[in-house]
Amino acid sequence: MSVFLLRIPVQLSDSFTEFMSVHEGTVWTVVKAGFDGGPYLRPFRRGLIKVVFELSGGNYQLAFRGFQVIQLVALLVLVVRALPVRSRDDAAVVPMTLALVLAGHTFAAAILEGLPINHFLTILVCCAAAVNLLRARPSWLVDLSAVVLLIFSMLTIETGLVVSAIFVSGYAVGYRGVSRGGLTAIVLCVVAYGVGRFGLLEGTTPGLDERSAGFGFRVLDTAELIRRFGANPLPFYLYNVACAMSSVLFAEPRGGVWGFVYGWTRGHPEPWRVISVVSTTTMTGLILVFAVRRFGQWRRGLFQTDTDRMVAMFFAVLCANAVFAFAYEKDAIMGPAGLFYALAASAVLRELVTGARTLNVPRPILAMAMMIVACGWGIRLVGIHYSLQVRELSVRNEWAYYEDWEDKQDFEVPFTPEEVAIRDSLRRQAIRGSSNVRRLESRLADQFLDVTQ
Amino acid sequence: MTLAGGIRELLRPQFVVCIPPLAAILLVAIYLCVESVRPGTLTAARPETIPEAIVLGNGPRALEMMAEGADINAPGRIRSGLLDRLEYHVTPLEAALMARRMEIVRLLIRTGADASRSTRAACLAGARLPEALPLLGLPPSGVGSGEAADCFAPSGP
């Protein structure tokens, strides 16, 4: 995957303007400017971009995509570290776990987008690190790391607050890596964040005029959103939260749009949607059967195994994460829940593979379900690589037609010579090596692999 | 081990869960290896001329060739099978018009393509991409409206 990733230039949309914002000043001034109130509070996000920008030495593609590869490797190492692999049967589930992490639609945006640093991927790394801390041997260093991790993640992007939910739910299900004192500090950090953001900085939450959003079978632009929900946005917010949860559990809707249902009702759902929905729903079914059987124990506060803990934590993170999608539902926002879905699914599959626990489901049905899950996610794992190839050409094309893009922007001030130099360098890097752009030409691949991200 | 025994073995939960994702990883690895050793074996044709890059939608490759010194107004070959069954020898601008790629027409004009050096551009624009006519300095309508193939027909006695 890293090979595919390194070939993609820094993208134009959502990235180039970030370069314009960080090329002047120091890391401190860039971070400080992030504390300006408004609907978002993401000072460390630009700070991180600034650091990589300064270290790049002008080789932006290698620096930023390289950083994304480092994040990807860190995520996978942390995920594998979090898996209790003690036997050959446990090890048999590892490839499937990686497929569940990498091939999920909530993960796709973390890998396909540049931005130029993908902060959704940064948060996933933080979430995986949080799981490792929860499972670590308790010490003051673990507590301190947990607090630092939370501060870093919540000041990188709002979804980073999910890390606090991971620590709290982890403690509730019995992980004691982070102590009660550490947990208190974490809760205080969240309170301080709320007071600081909405009290001191007078920040707001994103409104309906922020961006277009999916609703029903299509995407509504901001004008239509305001016309429909301006008087009372609550139903729209509830819709988004419900869609966010459904998206993780059933891979439908995507970005608030019910594309599979739309295709189904017209008798021709796209094959890649069928694969996504069926493989995810089947896996969710297995998780739910496990959860229902164990719910009685959980209610009494008994979380005996890692699987109990991971599945219970998944539901907690799913609910906490969905809250952040209230303004608009976007697959990437649900990345942390997607990661915990993968961990919970992996844990349930491990129980089935090792025979540690049965789900009271007839063996042939169970075997069929596992086959559907494994094959479906396997196909999706190929699909994410295919998407990366498609992405490479589309990013290079973006830069080739830069002037068309600029015409649509409302840049009020002409670029300075330094900004022009950055732009030209980014464009040169995007065009260089285009002779090696390759794409598997296959109508079958276009039908069966998801390239919509 | 008998065949039935082998199949039973493969249907053990360990294998059912393990084999598909490993097969997916293996497929991707094979694809990478094959494309590294023999580029183009599994992928689409690699553009050899600017017109080919254009009909394949590879705008950056067209720009890269120009940066390497290729003449933006010089005719180049489009191999049969890339646009349709026929082989063509056309200028980049003509290729963009034939492939109905408005964004590339704009790019070529910006980069210095000279429509007046093409005898077929007006005809192809009329037949395939009328919205490009103003960019070529022609009135929005009235210049050809037949088939693109007519633009390649012999121009008379």
Largest sheet of chain A: 2 strands, antiparallel
Name the biggest interface: A-B, 46 and 39 residues
Largest sheet features of chain B = 2 strands, antiparallel
Strands across the major sheet of chain B, in which order?
1-2
Structural class of chain A: mainly alpha
Uncertain ranges of chain B: none
Task: Outline the structure in words.
The complex is a heterodimer of chains A (453) and B (157). Chain A is mostly helical. Chain A is globular and about 70 Å long. Chain A has a two-stranded antiparallel ribbon with strand order 1-2. Chain A is built from 22 helices and two strands. In chain A, a hairpin with a 2-residue loop joins β1 and β2. Helix content of chain A is 68%, strand content 1%. The mean pLDDT of chain A is 90. Chain A has helices at 2-6, 16-22, 27-33, 43-56, 60-82, 88-92, 94-102, 105-112, 119-134, 140-154, 162-172, 180-200, 222-229, 234-250, 259-265, 271-299, 306-323, 335-354, 363-400, 402-408, 417-431, 443-448, and strands at residues 213-215, 218-220. Chain B is mostly helical. Chain B has two domains: 3-37; 50-151, Ankyrin repeat-containing domain (Serine Threonine Protein Phosphatase 5, Tetratricopeptide repeat, Alpha Horseshoe), CATH 1.25.40.20. Chain B contains seven helices and two strands. Chain B has helices at 3-10, 13-37, 50-55, 59-67, 92-98, 102-111, 121-128; strands at residues 76-78, 88-90. A two-stranded antiparallel ribbon of chain B has the order 1-2. In chain B, α5 (92-98) packs antiparallel against α6 (102-111) and α5 runs parallel beside α7 (121-128). Chain B starts with a helix and ends in a 29-residue tail after the last helix. The mean pLDDT of chain B is 83. Chain A binds chain B through residues 1, 3, 88-89, 92-93, 95-96, 98-99, 349, 352-353, 355, 367, 370-371, 373-375, 377-379, 381-382, 385, 393, 396-397, 399-401, 403-404, 430-441, and chain B through 11, 13-25, 27-28, 31-32, 35, 39-40, 42-44, 46-47, 57-64, 67, 103, 106-107, 110.
